[in-house]
Amino acid sequence: MPLPREHLLDELATAYIQAIAAAGGAIVAASRRDYGVDGTLRHIVKVRDRFVPSGFPVEFQLKGTTTAEVHATHVLFDLKARNYDLVVTRERWGAPLYLFLVCFDSDIDRWVWEGDDQLILRASAYWWSKSDSATLNRSTVRIQIPITNRLTSRAVESMLDASSERFKR
Questions:
Q1: Ordered structural domains, the chain, with CATH
Q2: Could you say which of 92, 129, 145, 159 would form a disulfide bridge with 75 (CB–CB 3.0 to 4.6 Å)?
Q3: In Å, how far are 10, 41, 59, 64, 114 from 168, measured between CA atoms?
Q4: pTM of this prediction?
Q5: Whole-number Å distance between alpha carbons of 20 and 91
Q6: Which distant-in-sequence residues (6+ apart) come within 8 Å of 167 by Cβ?
């Protein structure tokens, strides 16, 4: 029996983040309860002869979607006001909080391709973070993410490095 469309979208978005994080030298810890944080990235470093978390995490909200508008210079997405507020009002001394937006085609048959020697997850992902006041909107806030904010393994490494530097100050 297939998964409901929204559950499949969530599972594939999670798999995308897992793959990107691993390629960036990090692990993902999923949150069991949803208080606005879906997961935490932890950078793994080698200390003497063993591997351990660095101690400078990055937290994220994860949204898998087929409704984002991907343009040449930016991505538009209608984020629930509650989720917007959680990101923009995050205290500066806390772990950084990002929105990870994984964008899929509207055609479910294009989401995954399985070949004899490869598995392709057909999606693109972007990251967004901002410090601001809470919105006055009650339902959604349209956010604009620069296309340069592609979520890649290098972007994950940069986020974790920035978190480390921020905590060391």
A1: 5-168 (3.40.1350)
A2: 145
A3: 34, 18, 18, 33, 44
A4: 0.93
A5: 26
A6: 55, 56
